[in-house]
Amino acid sequence: MKRSGPLLTLLGGLLLALVMLSLNATTGTRSTSSSTTNEPPPASASPSPSPTKASPSPSPTPTPPPNADYAGRTDDDSAAIAVSLRDGKAVAYFCDGRDKESWLKGDVEDDGGMKLTSKDGAELNGTIEGGSIRGTVDIGGQEYGFTADKAVKPSGLYRATANVRGAEVDGGWILLQDGRQVGILKRDGTPSPAPEIDPETGAVTVDGQRLTARPVTP
Amino acid sequence: MTVDPNAATQDFPSPPSAPARPGGGASRYLVPALVACAVAIGLGAYGKVHDPAGTAFNLAGFSSTGAVKSWLATVSFGFALVQLVSALMMYGKLPGPSWSGVLHRWSGRVAFLVAVPVAVHCLYALGYQTYDPRVLWHSVLGCFFFGVFSAKMLLLRSERLPGWLLPIVGGLVFTALTVVWLTSALWFFRTFGVTT
């Protein structure tokens, strides 16, 4: 007679894995209470906001370009640009890592063209071609050409906002495909180079306080 | 009536019957080895091909999935240490109680089942990554761990294995889990502090 215990162990693990996968796929980021804890899930403590899991199945009809993140540098290599696309809307971040940055928003056309604008008057014009976005950014009277390639997590666009010791802290980070980070942290509107975030968890320490930078979606 | 404690408890192989099943001996090793390869490569391929979701559900009471995983991994590693000690007891290298075999089986099951959610999260949310040496080793050995664990489980079902085989495979399982833990949970605790 063969021992069936080891086999049952393996099957148990497989079953558990499948249950967890289906939970992940169906509930997205909703917190699940474990059997040992009954407290309500902390609203601010889950690792990433739910918008990262938008419509999972791209429909076959010619609809807006598929949801994706793009990251790259300007042609003169002076700044980084990341674009996050969800359901025909896009948010972009231009950041030189020192003092120049801009958040831009707008719609993406079905043909992959986009024109994003910011509150401070910056403008991004780009087109999705294959796996990258090619275009220009007008900011502060200067025009930068850029190419941003498709970015897979952990690379992409992150933001953290919080109140640290009475100061409004607003940080933006672009994690490039090669692992480099470009970020600016504003304290009450004054920009400075941002400390590095952990690419896996988004954790970053600002003035002694731990914050979590979250993926940005439109 | 006296009982010989060393008497064979299973059907003893009579020499003429052994060659009657050619390949039966090899398949005892081949099947676990192939399953191990399939599991390891399958997990790695899934992690590589599947677009990492970047997120998955969290457990209540923890600040981040990184913390949850680190603690689950640490629990698993703790049971793996029990595995090492109880295995040494079973092989008589350490004095141990008569139930060290039961201890070994159940601590192993717990260690494995606790590690599964961690692996699911890794593969679902983060994927197979190679962007620095720590991450590369973690990815490779994480896949290897589940492969070699599958092999160990399947080998346990075979009778009359060479005496050195299970300790070697078990040692590989333990070593893989240790390095996987060092490159993830220990790194997490050192980077972020021991948080929940």
Describe the structure.
The complex is a heterodimer of chains A (218) and B (196). With 218 residues, chain A is mainly beta. Helix content of chain A is 11%, strand content 44%. Chain A has 1 helix and 15 strands; from the N terminus they run H-E-E-E-E-E-E-E-E-E-E-E-E-E-E-E. Chain A has one helix spanning 5-27; strands spanning 68-74, 80-86, 89-95, 101-107, 113-117, 123-129, 132-139, 142-151, 156-164, 167-175, 181-187, 190-193, 203-206, 209-212, 214-215. In chain A, strand 3 (89-95) and strand 4 (101-107) form a beta hairpin. Chain B has a domain at 62-192. In chain B, 66% of the residues lie in helices and 0% in strands. Chain B contains 5 helices and no strands. Chain B is globular. Chain B starts with 23 loop residues before the first helix and ends with a helix. Mean pLDDT of chain B is 82; it is low at 8-23. At the A-B interface, helix 1 of A face helix 3, helix 4 and helix 5 of B.
User: What shape does the CA trace of chain B take?
Assistant: globular
Secondary-structure element series of chain A: HEEEEEEEEEEEEEEE
> N-to-C terminal Cα separation of chain A, in Å?
60 Å
Counting copies of identical and different chains, the oligomeric state is: heterodimer
User: In this structure, how is the largest beta sheet of chain B organized?
Assistant: none
Report the portion of residues of chain B in β strands: under 5%
CATH class descriptor of the domain at 64-151 in chain A: Mainly Beta
